[in-house]
Amino acid sequence: MFRNELENHLNQLLDVSRFQDYCPNGLQVEGREHIQRIVTGVTASLELLQAAIAREADAVIVHHGYFWRGENACITGMKHRRIALLMQHGINLFAYHLPLDMHSELGNNVQLAKRLGFVENGRFGEQDIVVRGALQEAMPLCALGHKIAQALGREPQIIGNPEQSVRQLAWCTGAAQGYFEAAIAQNVDAYITGEISEQTVHAARESGVAFIAAGHHATERYGVQALGAHLADEFGIQHQFVDIDNPV
Predict the structure, then answer these.
(1) Residue 106: which pLDDT band, with cuts at 50, 70 and 90?
(2) CATH number at residue 88
């Protein structure tokens, strides 16, 4: 398909115009016009770009792209090496941040819930970014931690009484520890996100609401995979997800 066809489809599908985000969503680096092979990944790191070149990709689609608000705008150093590599090989880079977190079918939050068996029943927080829901049956916090570890392939960091019963949940993938107080106000038993801050430990202990940091990268692998699979089904494009290991 043509690059502009892919761009228009993605922008409409993910409804990018309705989001106030920290970076531009959509085509960030323009490459060749015709697209047949796509590589998806979480972050547009040099290692992911090299993997895309090895797979003869025409486009890379990621959750974490470039040009973040507040960063140095100069294209030097690491940013230059990445962008130069894309341009040298004519590879398009598409990036979708909040639109991919929040999509009702393909989003990171929905895809994480699908893997963990969470049932959504509402949203809250800025731009309704945080999901509220429940487990189908209550279980001890330690059992929920084991379930998450099995699904994501890494041990989560858990603050809370291992034996406390958990049924009502809130979750938001990535670095969403800033919404913990809002989650506490929702009267949930546990909050799940990717990262944890020092002060969050005390908030969890004092509130009695368990906090589970399951990994920024680990919780955000699934939306971009679902998006790539959608494009393969819809347009017959070849798609491969490349998981660049990240312990955070």
Answers:
(1) very high
(2) 3.40.1390.30
